[in-house]
Amino acid sequence: MTETIIDLSKYHNALSRRNQVVRMLWTIVWGVFARPLPRSVGSGWKRFLLRLFGAKIDRTAIVYSSAKVYYPANLIMERYACLASDVDCYNVAPVHIGANTTVSQGAYLCTASHDITNPLNPLVTAPIVIEDQAWVAAGAFVGMGVTIGQGAVVGARAAVFKDVDAWTVVGGNPAKFIKKRIIKDIV
């Protein structure tokens, strides 16, 4: 077997200089004008800041102050969508969060990785879609290119690398089917 040499001194960041400047400005703006606010206080103000940097976010969506959004222009949040405390939304590619959907504390949404078959490890990206009425529980990881189906639940600390069917519950690492999600009638 031939030994392959990986030489990252030749690595090139594929993201444009403009993109890097916008991200730097965004980090400063969020850090100064939103992060100091307690949890979900100032939701309208935070939505304004996100929209200022290109996010498409419904007037009822909630983004907690400690949530991190890498690139607001790649964020879409529908009615009553929520990014809770300490969510890390690494949205190099688009992240679409459907209506009545919650991404809980400490979850990590990751739209990028590197091509490990190429010795220069170039960046590869794919969007994440979390459909309406879904719940990504605390500390879960959702990888690039994944669609979480309508009404699905990703259990706490789960690691999701493949699409999740609608109205199912998954958990574990890697995430596996646990059961169907059945909503009870409220009496």
UniProtKB/TrEMBL annotation:
Record keywords: Repeat, Transferase
InterPro entries tied to this protein: Hexapep_transf_CS, Hexapeptide_acetyltransf, Trimer_LpxA-like_sf
Domain of life: Bacteria
Positions of transmembrane segments: none
Annotated GO CC locations: cytosol
Keyword Lipoprotein: no
SUPFAM superfamilies linked to this entry: Trimeric LpxA-like enzymes
Gene Ontology molecular-function annotations: O-acyltransferase activity
Keyword Transferase listed: yes
Family statement: Belongs to the transferase hexapeptide repeat family.
Name of the protein in question: Transferase hexapeptide repeat containing protein
Lineage, opening ranks: Bacteria, Pseudomonadati, Bacteroidota, Bacteroidia, Bacteroidales
